[in-house]
């Protein structure tokens, strides 16, 4: 399985989403994190199996939560560029795109 790195802004998005869900209901933030972990494991096993957005960029949707994970593939590592709410400006992360070092 390929390892995954997390863009600093994606890490902030992850934390904000988990805290948001935890405020809604105790334990829901943990369920969100588990759903994300499941998606990352699936990505690591078959990085090219998910929706291709453009060369080297892919997206997978989380189960149970309206979030997408955008990642960039390289031969030895995946870089998660964004963890975004699908109903809120889904392309805001484009400035983090392919080829940028994070």
Tell me about this structure.
Strand 2 (51-54) and strand 3 (57-61) form a beta hairpin. The mean pLDDT is 87. By secondary structure, this protein is an alpha+beta fold. It is 34% helix and 28% strand. It has helices at 8-24, 28-45, and strands at 3-6, 51-54, 57-61, 67-73, 77-85. Helix 1 (8-24) packs antiparallel against helix 2 (28-45). It has one domain (3-87): 2-Layer Sandwich (YaeB-like fold).
Q: Count helical runs.
A: 2
Classify the secondary structure makeup into a structural class.
Answer: alpha+beta
Shape: globular
The CATH superfamily bears the name RelE-like
Mean pLDDT: 87
Compute the number of structural domains: 1
Quote the distance from N terminus to C terminus: 21 Å
Strand order of the largest sheet: 1-5-4-3-2
CATH topology: YaeB-like fold
Order of helices and strands: EHHEEEE
In the CATH hierarchy, what is the architecture at level 2? 2-Layer Sandwich
The major sheet is characterized as:
5 strands, mixed
Strand content: 25-35%
Helix content: 25-40%
């Amino acid at each position: 399985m390929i390892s995954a790195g997390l863009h600093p802004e994606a890490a902030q998005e992850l934390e904000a989403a988990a805290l948001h869900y935890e405020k809604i209901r105790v334990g829901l933030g943990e369920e969100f994190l588990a759903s994300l972990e499941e998606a990352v494991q699936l990505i690591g096993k078959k990085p090219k199996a998910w929706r291709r957005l453009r060369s080297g960029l892919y997206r997978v949707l989380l189960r149970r939560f309206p979030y997408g994970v955008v990642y960039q593939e390289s031969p030895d590592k995946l870089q998660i560029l964004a963890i975004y709410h699908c109903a809120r400006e889904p392309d805001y992360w484009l400035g983090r795109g392919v080829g940028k070092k994070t």
